[in-house]
């Protein structure tokens, strides 16, 4: 008896998706709720779980196929016997012992569902999913589970390696990739992912429909860095998360948005919508493209809660596990190109928002203070804004307030 495998029901804002990958192949046993495939839409990646226990009998929609909500993509055979194939190691052991190699009666540990990022890391280090315990939903193995096992392996093997290895030698650089044969001009063509296509569409829309202008300033990050240095260890012990720069910028942005409500507004037709709440989007780069998860009611969050949520967003974004609700909406966005080494950039608006703040690399520079030239850690800030709604005066004053708050972070606590 067969059971259909169907695409999850999409929200109204999502019309169709593309099968990103199948994690099971025909003939393999599956259990109810186990991850079978992933469907990428223009917003998030949806998981296709097994509806019942059984054996994957057929894949009717291979990876790369466009599918709609509720469409049948494969079939499960509930009546088939779930007899897992014996592992090569077990077969070789029986051969050495003189035992028959038909191990269908032997219980073989079943591999847990593995997320794509975790699978790549496992392949790099030759780990077996059956030896890992997954902490994700339904026992799925996450990237963090693989990294934890690697740390354990390194700790266990380090003493033995130290005894057996001679004195360390200088690292040998990896050989460069061989040049293409003379006369050849290789190129590779791949279809654009739905997420990448949607990002491109929205960015072009922003350029076409908004009057985008960017204003710049610089901020001396020394006060914030000194504050972090004094309290970083205790903060991490107390809250279980590292004290980063982003929480300072989120708090400074919220305070500036209170004073300049038009920066927190949006245009709807011929109306201006002033938002009385602060949903701050944090741009995150992922292997599939840029996503912007949203800190809802960020003004009600402590700095520790901001850091915890940003860390959670970053980890789940890499595995495509953000929900549609988490990346929808937002009244203002912060993007940090500095983590990639960007010195200066002009960020593009995230429609229908009216402004976006760009952070950049912190770099020591000579600056003048009280008639003296001193070296300070300086960051360039960029505020791109919709000139239809925000005048240059408000934009400049908004950015200057963020600069002033970061150069005197005690004001963030006093709200002055």
What does this structure look like?
The chain has nine helices and 19 strands. α2 runs parallel beside α3 and α6 (246-259) crosses α7. It has helices at residues 88-97, 116-125, 143-164, 194-209, 222-239, 246-259, 303-318, 392-407, 410-414, and strands spanning 2-6, 16-22, 29-30, 35-40, 45-49, 54-59, 66-68, 72-77, 212-220, 265-268, 271-274, 280-282, 284-286, 289-291, 294-295, 332-336, 355-359, 363-369, 372-386. The protein is globular and about 80 Å long. Strands 9, 12, 15, 16, 17, 18 and 19 form a seven-stranded mixed beta sheet that branches. The chain has 416 residues and is of the alpha+beta class. A hairpin with a 4-residue loop joins β4 and β5 (45-49).
- Write down how many β-strands occur, each being a DSSP E stretch of 2 or more residues: 19
Radius of gyration, in angstroms, nearest whole number: 26 Å
Counted by DSSP, the helix tally is 9
Largest sheet: 7 strands, mixed
**Which of globular, elongated, flat, extended, rod-shaped describes the shape?**
globular
Distance separating the two termini: 69 Å
Strand content bin? 15-25%
Residue ranges: pLDDT <50 for 5 or more in a row?
99-109, 156-172
Can you give the mean pLDDT? 82
Helix content: 25-40%
């Amino acid at each position: 008896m067969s059971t259909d495998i169907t695409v999850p029901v999409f929200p109204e804002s999502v019309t169709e998706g593309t099968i990103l990958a199948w994690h099971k192949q025909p003939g393999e046993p599956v259990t109810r709720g186990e991850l079978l495939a992933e469907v990428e839409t223009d917003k998030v990646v949806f998981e296709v779980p097994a509806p019942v226990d059984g054996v994957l009998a057929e894949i009717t929609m291979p990876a790369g196929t466009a599918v709609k909500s509720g469409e049948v993509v494969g079939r499960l055979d509930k009546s088939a016997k779930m007899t897992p194939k014996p592992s090569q190691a077990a077969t070789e052991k029986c051969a050495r012992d003189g035992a028959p190699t038909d191990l269908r009666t032997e219980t073989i540990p079943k591999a847990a569902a593995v997320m794509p990022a975790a699978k790549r890391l496992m392949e790099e280090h030759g780990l077996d999913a059956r030896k890992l315990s997954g902490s994700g939903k339904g026992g799925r193995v996450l990237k963090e589970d693989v990294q934890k096992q690697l740390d354990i392996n390194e700790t266990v093997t380090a003493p033995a390696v130290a005894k057996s290895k001679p004195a360390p030698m200088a690292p040998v650089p990896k050989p460069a990739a061989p040049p293409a044969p003379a006369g050849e001009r290789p190129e590779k063509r791949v279809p654009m992912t739905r997420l990448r296509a949607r990002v491109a569409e929205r960015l072009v829309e922003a350029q076409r429909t908004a009057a985008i202008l960017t204003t710049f300033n610089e901020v001396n990050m020394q006060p914030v860095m000194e504050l972090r240095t004094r309290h970083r260890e205790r903060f991490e012990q107390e809250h279980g998360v590292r004290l980063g720069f982003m929480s300072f910028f989120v708090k400074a942005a919220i305070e500036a948005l209170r004073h300049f409500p038009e920066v927190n507004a949006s245009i709807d037709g011929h109306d201006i919508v002033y938002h009385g709440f602060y949903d701050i989007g944090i741009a995150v780069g992922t292997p599939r493209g840029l996503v912007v998860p949203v800190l809802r009611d960020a003004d009600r969050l402590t700095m520790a809660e901001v850091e915890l949520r940003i860390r959670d967003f970053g980890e789940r974004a890499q595995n495509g596990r953000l929900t549609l609700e988490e990346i929808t909406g937002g009244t203002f966005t912060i993007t940090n190109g500095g983590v990639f080494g960007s010195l200066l950039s002009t960020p593009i608006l995230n429609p229908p928002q009216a402004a976006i703040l760009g952070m950049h690399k912190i770099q020591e520079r000579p600056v003048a203070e009280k008639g003296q030239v001193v070296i300070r850690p300086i960051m360039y800030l960029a505020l791109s804004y919709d000139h239809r709604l925000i005048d240059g005066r408000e934009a400049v004053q908004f950015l200057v307030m963020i600069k002033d708050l970061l150069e005197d972070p005690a004001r963030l606590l006093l709200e002055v």
